Amino acid sequence: MATTTIKLARLNGEPEIFHSIQGEGVSMGIPSVFVRASLCNLHCIWCDTDYTWNWENTPWKHEKDTDPQYRKFKKEDYLIEMNTDQVAEKIAAIPCPRVIITGGEPLLQDEAWQSLIEHLSLKNSDYYFEVETNGTITPSHELDQKVHQYNVSPKLTNSGNSPTLRINAEALAFFSKSPKVWFKFVVASESDLAEINELITEHCLPRQRILLMPEGRDNATLEKRRLWLAEICREQGFRYSDRLHIQLWGSKRGV
Predict the structure, then answer these.
(1) Is the distance from CB of 31 to CB of 99 less than 8 angstroms?
(2) pLDDT tens sequence for the chain (255 residues)
(3) What b/e sequence results for 240-252 when a residue is b if at least 16 CB atoms lie within 10 Å of its CB, and e otherwise?
(4) In Å, what is the CA distance from 154 to each residue of 7, 34, 44, 74, 207?
(5) What is the DSSP letter of 205?
(6) 8 A C-beta contact, residue 99 and residue 35
(7) Using CA atoms, how far apart are residues 70 and 65, in angstroms rounded to an integer?
(8) Are β-strands 14-15 and 5-11 bridged in parallel, bridged antiparallel, or unpaired?
(9) Rg, the chain, Cα only
(10) Burial level of 193, CB count in 10 A (0-12/13-18/19+)?
């Protein structure tokens, strides 16, 4: 069993590994252990985990740039590198078999997750592994054999990323055919719906496995968007996802 290093987000000096409940998507409400990868290949202007990529002296834009209190992040303060066997020990100390690998963009570190999953599976065969990804990177065959569920969130124009960065036809073709995949789109306005339907048609995404979720990092914003989006889901046959963790804890990290 190989041991390799993995780059994780840092929270209060420690790797961002925490026990909570899943707040989004088809697994919403299920107790889970979250493991947050650092680094991302996209730079969404509304990202609420911008401390995984918006480093000092980078050109990336964020909607918080207008806030005089907002600063880009010092990389060494927000990224920690550890051996995967050490990370596995921390996860195994938490009495919860569902592990959600999130980010950032986890699939930038394919081999590291393979190693982590191998370590954990030897400890307990009941582990269930979800990977949250932006859908731009195809997982290796070896990793795919170990993952139980993908939560794929393709980014729209509202993310501020160019189409050449946020849409990878080869990766979407892989995910569209996988029985392990649920797609989740972050919706900021009704104009996003036409773009979502174009992606469904162009990339043959299975409509019955698509969730729409309102964009928002606070209850006031979600309240404005959830009712009309739920109505659209009912009319057009999508699943609806809220952001339960925002309702419970706000935008606080590590809960």
Answers:
(1) no
(2) 667 999 999 998 999 999 999 888 899 899 999 999 999 999 999 998 999 999 999 999 999 999 999 999 999 999 999 999 999 999 999 999 999 999 999 999 999 999 999 999 999 999 999 999 999 999 999 999 999 999 999 999 989 999 999 999 999 999 999 999 999 998 888 889 999 999 999 999 999 999 998 876 676 677 777 878 888 889 999 998 877 766 656 666 555
(3) ebbbebbeeeeee
(4) 23, 20, 11, 27, 14
(5) -
(6) yes
(7) 6
(8) antiparallel
(9) 18
(10) middle
- Taken as a whole, the chain contains a residue count of 255
Give the amino acid at 105: E
- Residue identified by tokens 């789109």 is 185
Question: CA–CA distance from 191 to each of 68, 141, 194, 196, 222 (Å)?
Answer: 30, 36, 6, 9, 17
Question: Residue 101, CB half-sphere, CA atoms under 13 Å: how many?
Answer: 31
The residues that bridge with 18 in the sheet, in sequence order, are 34
